[in-house]
Amino acid sequence: MLRVFNPVLFKTRQSRIAAILVGWFAGCLLCGCTPKPPAEEQKKSSGGQLNQATAQSSPGRTNQGVATQGSANQGSTNPVGANPVGAEGSGIKLEWLEGAVPLAVVKTGKENGNLFLPETTGGGIGAFDFDRDGWTDIVCAGGGEADAEKRQMIGAAGALYRRIGTAGNGVAGGAAGTPTETQSDNVGFQSVGQFAGIDFSQHYNTGIAIADFDGDGFPDLFIAGYSNSHLFRNQGDGTFESLDCRAIGLSSPLWGASAAFFDADADGLLDLYVANYANWSFDNNPVCGQHARTGTQTKSTDYCGPREFQGLPDVFYHNAGDGTFRDITRESGLEDALRGLGVIAADWDQDGDVDLYVANDVDPNLLYRNDGGGRFTEIGRRAGVATNDSGTPEGSMGVAVGDYNLDGKSDLWVTNYQNELGALYRNSGGLVFNYASLNAKIAATDEASVGWGTAFADLDGDGDEDLLVVNGHIELAPKGSTVDQRPQVLQNQGGKTFQLVPRSNAKFLDTPMNARGLATADFNRDGKLDFVASRVDKEAALVLNRSHDQRSVRLRLVGTKSNRDAIGARIQLQLGRFRAVRQVIGGGSYASTSDLLVHIGIPSEEWKAESVGAAQISIDWPSGQREEFTFDAKSGLWDEEKILVEGVANR
C-alpha cells in the first residue's frame, strides 16, 4: 500500500525534544536496559509512528605512470601481484537494488555537446536520518546543465528519499516531487523532496555536506556548486528551510566541489571548509581535443583537462553560533589556490583537535595540522601525503580515513586518475606517513580506472576495514580505458594487504558505470554496512551488503559539550583480544557524506567464543573529555545500535 508522506513528523522544535531525550538517555540508556521514551513524545517525534531510533537503542591530463618505488616497513613483506580472492573466499556478497531511488540522478548536460568542464565532475550523494525516525535516508545532488546561449549554468533539483521501515514489493515511479515508494526485502524509499522543501536548482550543484550546524538535533544540508552554494536548515518537522547564503555569510562566487563540517576551534560549533576547483567560465573555455595544439580545430572534440585552468582558493567559514558564518580563511592559515576536489577532517596526530586534508587535481595534496584555537599549518610534503612516493602530484579526487593495519592510528586513502595508483598512506605517528600502496598490493587491484567516491568499510565483518571505490572517466575517448568503469571492493587481508573482490560476487561490481559520489550506511539495520553511489546522468545505485555470519558493534555518538554530531571523536573498542579504533569524521569520499554511524566488525573468533565477556569502549570527545563504557557482550551488544551521550556515564 502506498504510504503518503506526512510533512509534520515532529510537532515541536528540537529544544523541547532534546531536553526530553537527554533526560531519558541519562536515566536508562547506558544502564544496560533497553530505553523506552515517553509514549506521547515518541509519537510526536515520528508523526504518530514508533520512533525506531529510540525504541531500539537505536580530465584529460598527462598520466604520471604507476609508481615503482615503495617505502620500507609498510606492514608487509609480500611482493606486489596478488590475484583477486576467490568467489567463495571473499565472504562479501552484495545486492544492487535497481530502481530503488529513480529520481536520484546527477544531471550534467553532456547531451548538449558543449564539452564544458563542469560536466565532467558530476555530483555527490549523502546518507543521513533527516527525520530522526531511526532509518537512514538518501539525498542526491542534481547537477544541472549549461545554457550556452544565455551563458549561464542552470541547476537541477536533486532528490531526497525517505527510508520507510516496512516490507513489500513496491514499484518505482512518479514525477519529480510526487511521493513514490520503492521497496525490496524490507528496504523501501519514498521520494519526498518537494514536500520537504528540497530543491537545489538555484545553482548548478555538486557537493553535499551534512551536519547539525546549529546543534538542534536535526542534520542540515550544505550544497556546494558552480558560482554559489546553498544551506538548508532542517526544521525538525520533516521539512527544510532554504537559507539565504548572502545573509548568513556563506556566499561565494567560486566553483565549490566538496565541503566538510568540523569543529576547528573546539567551541562546540561546527565550522565549514569548502574545497573549490578551477576557474572555468564561459569566457575561459579553451578549445581542447586531439588536434587542439596544432590550431587546426576551432571547436573542442573532447573535454579540457585541469591543467588548462588555474586552481581556485578554498574557503573556510567560522560558525558564529547565531546562525551566521564568517570567512576566516586567511587568519586561520588555510590559504591555497589549487584545484581542490575532495576534503576530509580527522585527528591524525591524536592531540584532540581536528586536522584537515584536501585532495587536489594534479596539484600537491594538502595536510593542515590544527595548531589549536582554529589556526592551521600546512605540512603535506613534510608529512609524506602531498604526492606519490616519487614526489609527483596526482589527479586526486576521493579521500577516506581508516585504520587499515589495526595499529590504532588513522591512515589515509586517496583515489586518483587513470594509471595512477590509489594512494594508501600509513600513519606512523607524529604526523609522519609512509606511502604504502605497493607493499599493501594496491597495484594488483589497478584497472586503469579514474577513482572518485571512496570509503573504508568493514564489509565482511572480520574487524579490519575494506575499501570501496567507484570509478568513471571524464574523457569521451580515453586511451587505454573506457568511459564507464567497474566499481571495486578491495578486501583487507588481515591489515597487511588488499585483494580485489571478484566480479562474480555481485552484479554491481561487474557493471561498468560512470560513478562519482559514494556514501555508506546501514540502510536495513541488519548490522552490515551498505552503500549508495551517485552516477552521471543515471539513477544512483543502492547496494545492500548481503554477506553472512557477521556481528558488529554499532555506536551513535551524541555530543553535549562537543558538537552535537561528535565529529572529531575517537572511539576505541576492546573485546577479548580484539582491539579497534574508529573516528567520527567530517567530509570524505568525493562530494558526499556518509552516515555518522560508528561501525566495528567483530572477528568471528571473538563473538563465537564461549568465554566472551565485557566490551570496553572509550570515547575521546572533541571537547577533551574522555569517557569509558562497559557492555556485556552476551546481552545483545551486537543486536542493536547503541547511543552514547557525552557526559552520561554508563554505570
Short overview:
This protein is mainly beta and 651 residues long. Helices cover 8% and strands 33% of the residues.
Summary tags:
651 residues, mainly beta, five-stranded antiparallel beta sheet, 10 helices
Please explain how this structure is put together.
The protein has 10 helices and 41 strands. It has a 5-stranded antiparallel β-sheet with strand order 2-3-6-8-7. It has a 5-stranded antiparallel β-sheet with strand order 22-21-20-19-37. It is mostly beta strands. Helix content is 8%, strand content 33%. Mean pLDDT is 85; it is low at 1-88 and 167-184.
Chart the SSEs and their pairings.
Layout: H1 14-28, H2 39-44, H3 52-55, H4 87-90, E1 94-96, H5 118-121, E2 125-128, E3 137-140, E4 144-147, E5 152-155, E6 159-164, E7 181-184, E8 187-191, H6 193-196, E9 205-211, E10 220-225, E11 229-234, E12 240-243, H7 245-248, E13 256-262, E14 271-276, E15 312-313, E16 315-319, E17 325-327, H8 329-332, E18 337-338, E19 340-346, E20 355-360, E21 366-372, E22 375-378, H9 380-383, E23 399-402, E24 411-414, E25 423-429, E26 432-435, E27 451-457, E28 466-471, E29 488-493, E30 497-500, E31 515-521, E32 530-535, E33 538-545, E34 552-558, E35 570-575, E36 578-583, E37 586-587, E38 598-601, H10 604-607, E39 614-620, E40 626-632, E41 641-645
Parallel strand pairs: 34-41
Antiparallel strand pairs: 1-33, 2-3, 3-6, 4-5, 6-8, 7-8, 9-10, 10-11, 11-12, 13-14, 14-16, 15-18, 16-17, 19-20, 19-37, 20-21, 21-22, 23-24, 24-25, 25-26, 27-28, 28-29, 29-30, 31-32, 32-33, 34-38, 35-36, 35-39, 39-40
